[in-house]
Amino acid sequence: MSLVSGWSQQPGASYTPPDDLAYRKANITSEGVRLSAELFAPKSAGDKKLPVIVMGHGWGGVAALLRPDATVFARAGYLVVTFDYRGWGASDSRVILTKPAPAEPASKPGVARTYNAEVTEVREVVDPLEMTTDWLNVLHWLQGEPQADVSRIGIWGSSFAGGHVVWVAEHDPRVKVLVSQVGAMDSRPRTEADRKLYLEEATKVARGEKGYPAPRAQVVGQLRGGPIYSSFLQYAPVDDVERASQCAMLFIIAEKEELFDNRDHAIKAHERAKGPKKLVTIPGITHYGVYTTERGRAQKLAVEWFDQWLKK
Asked: For the whole prediction, is pTM greater than 0.90?
């Protein structure tokens, strides 16, 4: 089975922002679920409108892990928004009934009922279709943010989110710039055996024979979070890159990527992209090197790209 990746560590609960940055939390609604977001901006900007960078984590990560990168981008003169997907980090979850709804019909036709119910949360599942929907709703929310210059929106994603940002740019022309680092852009099964496995699981879920995986009950390689394979079958942003011709795309890849073949992901996306584009290979590192020894280099590349296309 092909693997996609992100961060699996959990950050500490406390956080003190740098003195030179304005920082606050916000709530965003995505399909009725509250998403937790954090905003960073240079204090020196005051109330001035700023170009925006929206950031999302990959498989198994949380928004708090993005704070070091958000700090760098905010100091470069951006309003930075990070967020947790539904069911992850500080965000709320979708809920599902654990007992049947009351049998009584609504008091009037077309009137939605209000009733007490026993539910369970859906937490820490990896569903690229839900995740990318959360991305789109963050962009909708952003339109009402007073400090956001919504004519200058950039997005940044790493690993699994390195594919999400491509998908988002394909579906929302308000995105002008993206940075995708070590991005996985095709979650479809690579073998017929895997395809059969994905389809069998999707059938069991649809027939009520299998539920969502319990939080932390499933680990894929180093990655925490249960994959929803029915969504994986449909998720391949690499196939539609041409749709995002309005977006300047930077792809940062690891020379020794071990989790997937770059030729099937960022390299293919770069070849197909119709707008401004750039592909940078960081030599000598594997997938996780962009979070350790080469994090500073990756940040510098991202800032330069955002500056080139959002500050012209």
From this structure: yes
